[in-house]
Design goal:
By secondary structure, this protein is mainly β. Helices cover 0% and strands 55% of the residues. The strands form five sheets. Strands 1-4-7-8-11-12-15 form a seven-stranded antiparallel sheet, with no helix packed on it. The radius of gyration is 22 Å and the shape is elongated.
């Protein structure tokens, strides 16, 4: 069997643009007041499995009448084996307390959408996959990866909307999945930079 523990975070809030940017730290008692203060400012929680909970307050610089939408989600988990076993076919030994292979410790997604005009919206998305061991013996490891995606939406006319998406904007070489088998690393390559275009017609 396996044992695991972790924490998860989900924050999604529209940011009214302010004329300042500041960071503040508050203690555990402020958690009871929720993630949004009366001024409408967003409090982003740093997730910890133990210890003092901290919040960071982020403002954004004013840019005319523009609007920013921020969404942040993530998790931190640790999965461990609680038995000992020799895996003859793989040539490795599982020991109690080893980390379960191919299980990322951190998973994060952050998305920032900018309503540039009444017709144009741009969005950036950051996807983080943390590192993990690629074999049950914990002798080999994949370092994880970070990806950035770009999305654009333009309402050309009242009934016509155009879309454009650039996935893996930085053209990062990464693995959708990595493991260790037959005496060597195996990588299942992720998608290279790719562009998608679309149009939506409404009546």
């Amino acid at each position: 069997s396996q044992v695991g523990a972790g924490v998860a975070l989900l924050v999604e809030q529209r940011l009214p643009l302010a004329d300042h940017a500041e960071v503040a730290v508050v203690d555990d008692r402020d958690l009871d007041r929720g993630a949004l203060d009366r001024g409408g400012r967003l409090l982003l929680r740093r997730a910890h499995e133990a210890g003092r909970q901290r919040l960071a307050e982020h403002g954004a610089r004013e840019v005319g009448r523009d609007r920013l939408d921020l969404a942040l989600s993530g998790s931190r988990a640790e999965h461990l084996y609680d038995f000992d076993r020799i895996v003859a076919t793989a040539g490795e030994t599982i020991r109690s307390g080893n980390t379960v292979d191919t299980a990322p410790d951190w998973l994060w997604t952050a998305r920032l959408d900018w309503q540039a005009t009444a017709r144009l919206t741009a969005g950036l998305e950051w996807v983080h996959v943390g590192g993990y061991f690629t074999d049950a013996a914990n002798d080999n490891r994949y370092d994880g990866h970070d990806l950035v995606n770009l999305r654009l939406r333009w309402r050309a006319r009242d009934r016509v909307t155009l879309f454009a998406t650039v996935r893996n904007l930085a053209d990062v070489r990464y693995a959708e999945r990595a493991d260790y088998a037959f005496g060597s690393d195996r990588y299942f390559p992720g998608e290279e930079r790719a562009v998608s275009l679309g149009v939506r017609l409404t009546r």
